[in-house]
Amino acid sequence: MKAKEWRQELGNIVCEYFATPELEEFYALPVNRDRAQLYLKQLTIYVRNRRNYWPQIAANCPEFEVKQRIYAHEYEELVEDEYSSHGHLDLVVRQAKEVGLSLDEMLNAEPLPSTRAAVYGWWWIARHCRWQQALAASTIAEWTNDERLLGDFGGGNCTRLLKSWGRGLGLQPEQMPNFTAHSKADERHADMFLEVLEQFIPPGEERDVLNTAKESMEIHRAFYGGMTMAMARM
Description:
The chain has 13 helices and no strands. It is mostly helical and 234 residues long. It has a single domain, classed as Heme oxygenase-like (Heme Oxygenase, Chain A, Up-down Bundle).
């Protein structure tokens, strides 16, 4: 398939994900300080573990140019880009301070059972699936912030949270650096591997790759569904 076709197919999977009950319930919950803290603690676990998935995909991939692109992606996430000189986890930590969380509380956050299960699921895909499938499963996560794709849903994840946290907590965009950055940065990351999918997935194997990307979104449903249940009890 051509890059344009991959964009269409992966985009359809993401749009289906945003229409699920778990996501609709998550965005319908009014935000308060306790719910914001829970979200950021689970997000920290998510962000830290994603730094394990991408290197595993690179290790399984024999294509040097794909490895280069993965590590270029990870340099921005781990080291620096135009949004942070300390990596993207720094953005989450800075935002957490605005809702009363310390660095220690963030780094030692306890995962919800659903978060733990999701982390195990994504790690299994990264380690054991063919590298093309695992790459699609990891890159599709960044499509959840693609404004070009998700305008009909009120925007991508970080754009919607930027608005709801502004209303519910009175925070300004500069107080939410993680949401502000990822509402923009992930559009570039969403495009980053389309050419790789076009070039390195043999004809006839597209469906396996798309199925694994869909499985990744199903794990996201569990991840957000678990947070929604925990937040609703607050």
